[in-house]
Design a protein that fits this description.
InterPro entries: HotDog_dom_sf, THEM4/THEM5_acyl-CoA_thioest, Thioestr_dom. This protein has a single domain, classed as Roll (Thiol Ester Dehydrase, Chain A). It is built from 8 helices and 8 strands; from the N terminus they run ααββαββαββββαααα. The protein has helices spanning about 1-25, 60-70, 100-110, 160-175, 240-255, 260-265, 265-270, 275-280; strands at about 75, 85-90, 125-135, 140-145, 180-190, 200-210, 210-220, 225-235. The relative contact order is 0.13. Bound molecules: ligand 3IX.
Amino acid sequence: MMRYGVAMASILRRVSQSFVNHRLLASPFKTDLMRPMVTLSWPFSAQPRDFSLPNPSWSKEMMQQYDLYTSQGEAEDGEEGSGPWIRLPSYNRTLKFATGGACLSKIIQSEARLFTRNITVPGAGFEYVLFIKKTQEKCVCIFQAGHLLEGPPGHVHGGATAAMIDTVNGTHASYLCGPVVTANLNINYRSPIPLGSTVMLESTLGQREGRKTFFSCRVTSTDGSKVYVESKALFLSISVSHILGGTTEHLIRYHDVTPGDITALPTRDLEDSETMRRTWRTRRP
Ligand SMILES: CCCCC/C=C\C/C=C\C/C=C\C/C=C\CCCC(=O)SCCNC(=O)CCNC(=O)[C@H](O)C(C)(C)COP(=O)(O)OP(=O)(O)OC[C@H]1O[C@@H](n2cnc3c(N)ncnc32)[C@H](O)[C@@H]1OP(=O)(O)O
């Protein structure tokens, strides 16, 4: 009971610290173009929740791995440590803080949510945090699979694992190459992943051939002794209009958007926005 109390106190301390870190992380990105930020902490504030920060549902194993990587690295804005790993913040809307013309504001105001962040009950779905190596050839993810991700009884659904692999490879690819889409994802499931367990995903940069960039991914136990999944993926670099072209077509058909709005569509705003700068890095190795 005593140990439980101490553990809970430690978790609560960690979470309240994470709120502080979260505010520190969020503030540098404030611009005139963004919604006003208030000083209250999530879940009471209008600030975005950074889902990659610890919450009380994180297991001891997840926290150990998180502490290991954060102690060897720094947050994206360079506030923690000075090791080789950078923690990547993670929100449930990719474009939430972008601004722009009529079409874009419709996209922003929609109910869309990033698939792997749309279960908001802590511990129920995808709990994960990504770290990228400063040298950029590796990106790792600590992933705790919640009970809503069941496939075979007591084990993680293969589609949930695929979504996580796509997320880790996709984020890695976006960080290195800017706007990309997955063209091909080939997965070998070697061993079922128990629900509730914590696993590591390691994305490795492969060949780069023009617009094509290849990645591999391994899902293992946190000590690396058990291999659950191995995969290979191809990402293709695209222009922002490749994605928005389809979106605007849909908006004309189903929403209150005219072709005039499309002509005025500020893809430049997208490319200029803080969100795009932060999510789609333009650095190349
Ligand atoms: C403005 C929006 C902002 C949104 C920001 C969003 C997120 C980024 C930020 C942070 C990341 C956060 C979370 C990450 C989470 C998840 C990542 C999700 C990524 C996805 O989940 S994304 C959805 C699934 N994805 C699609 O929805 C793609 C649909 N598809 C297409 O959009 C086209 O199909 C495309 C573009 C792929 C190709 O079309 P294309 O016309 O541009 O190119 P083309 O066909 O000419 O091929 C050129 C060369 O690629 C080879 N090639 C093509 N396809 C191949 C294949 N399948 N296998 C092997 N090789 C292939 C050809 O053989 C040729 O090769 P070569 O040049 O050697 O001949």
